[in-house]
Amino acid sequence: MTVDEPGMPEREAAPAAGTPEAGEAPDGEDGPRPGAPPAPAGGPHGAPAAPGAGPGAAPSPAAGAGGEGGGGGDGNGGGDGDSGAAEDDTDPSALRIEELILGSPRQYTPFQAARAAGVSMELASRFWRAMGFADVGQARALTEADVLALRRLAGLVEAGLLSESMAVQVARSTGQTTARLADWQIDSFLMGLTEPPEPGMTRNEVTFPLVQLLLPELEEFLVYVWRRQLAAATGRVVQAQDDEEMVNRRQAIGFADLVGFTRLTRRLEDEELGELVEAFETTSADLVAAHGGRLIKALGDEILYVAEDAATAAEIGLRLIETMANDATMPELRVGIAFGTMTTRMGDVFGNTVNLASRLTSIAPKDTVLVDGAFRAELTASGAAPESEKESEDLSGYRFALQPLYQRPVRGLGVVEPWLLRRRTPQG
To answer: Which run of H or E residues covers position 400?
Structure first.
């Protein structure tokens, strides 16, 4: 979408020939009028609507929606009813698959979609860009699903459930997350989408039935996982003592980093490198989740995770080292863990504690875990490690051992005393 045409949010344009009046559904079907409260979610029991019916349900610019073609008309985006130039340059088979996924054909210019949804072009463009899509000029590239998504977000703002900035954040977080999800899924199915089972079949003949079969199953699974994650996130909010604890929380934060990854990029073929990164991310994510941590993000050769307590973070860090050491295809790993206050926002974490964990990782020897003094204090306070190795007569009841290393300056954080973390008892 674009707001390049002056005055569009303030003035009405005559409807294009064959285009629904504002507030009317196409083809004479009944539909909510502009400004009406958002329609209920389309899934069962209030679950999100089917693909093409939610905030992320927008056509991809790669499917021929880009450019300024199709503007025509009176300059307000109304067009003349035949201005959908974007479709002329788009492979019909791609449009057919797009329509299958989105659930409805292209029929609106951005201005027509905004008017039908009862929102200004400025707000519609903000939502569209927040979801991660490029401006499409005045091409007839949008669908009824896009109109419904605009109505829903705008309705939440009108009802006072979300501020406008919060609605934009919802659009942005949903767009960024689902964009990566979609890329991952297409990568997973790429062979099935490109290799015909029989000679002479076109890519469209292979792709269309595969998408047709997968779409409802993936949608149901997506809703299930999203609800599970939403329940877990809500539980963390409810259990927090106060709002300050929820935003600025004391937790353990761990970085795990593959050693010598830059050299590997020069030595390995692209496909081999991709397989290594995928194996590292998959193994790390499984270990973090299985032992009670939460993966914040994976950055190719590095992962970032959090845990509510020091013992959990320590177990994860050591398990990562042990698991990768037993895999001959993996390079060495190093882990840094710190404990303290960090700010959580939009699924990410920030603050000096995060920076310290990153610095500890960078100075850790190969196949070791380094922790800071605050983490060591938490670990000993919980009884998982002794206060002093020398002064403790019986060490059999402790899970971890801690060895002090020389103090050293850490860029941007002053002088720190790292501790080498080891496992005392055999892993279960």
So the answer is: strand 400-404
Q: How far apart are CA 422 and CA 428, in angstroms?
A: 15
Confidence of residue 369 (pLDDT cuts 50, 70, 90): very high
> Coil, strand or helix: which one is 248?
strand
DSSP string across 267-298:
HS-HHHHHHHHHHHHHHHHHHHHHTT-EEEEE
Please give the single-letter amino acid code of residue 125. Answer: S
Mean of the pLDDT values across residues 44-71?
38
How many Å apart are CA 147 and CA 166, to the nearest integer?
A: 19
**414-416 and 369-371 as β-strands: parallel, antiparallel, unpaired?**
unpaired
pLDDT of 56 strictly over 60: no
Residues in Cβ contact with 185 at an 8 Å cutoff, skipping those fewer than 6 apart: 218
C-beta separation of 308 from 316 below 8 A: no
φ, ψ of residue 319 to 5 degrees: the values are -60, -40
Q: HSE of 364 in the Cβ direction (CA atoms, 13 Å)?
A: 33
Q: Greatest CA separation found in the chain?
A: 89
The pLDDT tens digits of the residues spanning 162-219 come to 888 888 888 888 888 888 888 878 877 766 666 666 777 777 777 888 888 888 988 8
Q: How many helices (H) and strands (E) does the chain have?
A: 13, 10
Tokens encoding 196: 């015909």
Coil vs helix vs strand at 174: helix
* Residues linked to residue 344 through DSSP beta bridges, in sequence order: 349
Query: Residue 401 is inside which H or E element, if any?
Result: strand 400-404
Residues recorded for the chain: 428
Question: Are the C-beta atoms of residues 369 and 335 closer than 8 Å to each other?
Answer: yes
Contacts made by residues 164-167, CB under 8 angstroms, sequence distance 24+: 164/123, 167/127
Kindly report the pTM of this predicted structure.
0.59
